Amino acid sequence: MANLRAGMVGIGSMGKNHVRNLRAIEGVDLVAIADAAGKDPYGVAGDLPVLPDVEDVIKAGVDYCVVAAPTKFHEEIGLKLAEAGVSALIEKPLAYDTAAARRLADAFSSRGLVGAVGHIERYNPALQSLRKRLENGDLGDLYQIATRRQGPFPARIADVGVVKDLASHDIDLTSWVTQRDFEWVAARTMFKTGRQYEDMVSATCSLSGGLMSNHLVNWLTPTKERRTYVTGEKGMFVADTLTADLTFYANANVATVWDDIANFRGVAEGDVTRFAIPKPEPLRTEHETFRDAVLGKPSDIVTMEQGAKVVQVCEAMIHSAATNEFVRID
To answer: φ and ψ at 46, to 5 degrees?
Structure first.
């Protein structure tokens, strides 16, 4: 069977990593690269010319294309790929707003094409292991999920704020690992760096089944933090996606003879288990998963429908912060 022919649009700081993985995975040949700037700042094009736009990538005869252009161009590029019958993996967020994201999702699904969104955290080994353990009931009833995604401002981000750039990761992973849907959103944002977009958000949300979530996200912290905490009936899981470590803090069963304390129905510290799990590169796993989907194999991609829902929740956070109101997710 011939290898799939892949194209790449956008070879900036994220695009260069996509190019590396497209060349590394089996069954795929990278045959065309485009960048609107016409430059190759990281020297990743090799013997391929840097084409001016997505039309030239389509003319090269590709089976699928990866898009890592600025968010405001995602809809235009994606619709051209869909019209040409080319499947696509588009970096997150899927589009600049919910309406555009839904148009993209409809364009690909109506043509029977594979459309996916690059929410890379789904493929982090710690979160993949966490989802399996939650599915197995290792935590029992779920009470709360909290995420902390903080760090310095990345100068490369110019067209969206911290909600759509960073909080979008946490929105997707929260819904995915718990298999719950967002229902209500309340948020506060801050603007501290002089840009038109928010650089800090604190959100409290309600998901289906009564699950509560909290999210702290900013570009104002001098050191990176990427952690997910899931608390439930049997204890707490902590996933550190910077190190791909997963740790379980169990609730202890301790017999208490002192009546006043015994009547307090709380929890006590139990055993702590740090799991030994394989740690493949998340982006490599994302590419292999998308390749398999294009080949028609069972594959857990982040669908464009799911990507559009993430954009909707992002916009609900922004709207909540602007209006001081809870926002319902339809």
So the answer is: 65, -125
pLDDT for position 269: 78
Residues 9 and 60 in one domain: yes
CA atoms of 47 and 56, how far apart (whole Å): 16
Is pLDDT of 36 > 70?
yes
- Count of structural domains, the chain: 2
Residue range of the domain that includes 42: 4-121+284-301
Name the CA dihedral angle for 166, 158, 31, 78, rounded to a multiple of 10 degrees: 80
Q: How many residues does the chain have?
A: 330
Confidence of residue 263 (pLDDT cuts 50, 70, 90): low
Instruction: Give tens-digit pLDDT for 268-307.
Output: 778 999 999 999 999 999 999 999 999 999 999 999 999 9
Q: Of the ranges 10-14, 80-84, 191-195, which one carries the lowest mean pLDDT score?
A: 191-195
Q: Is the pTM of this model over 0.85?
A: yes
pLDDT at 26 over 70: yes
With respect to residue 207, please indicate whether it lies within any of the assigned structural domains.
Answer: yes
Tell me which residue of 26, 19, 9, 17 sits closest to 84, measured CA to CA.
Answer: 9
Nearest Cα neighbor of 183 from 55, 312, 25 is: 312
- Indicate whether 80 and 9 sit together in one domain: yes
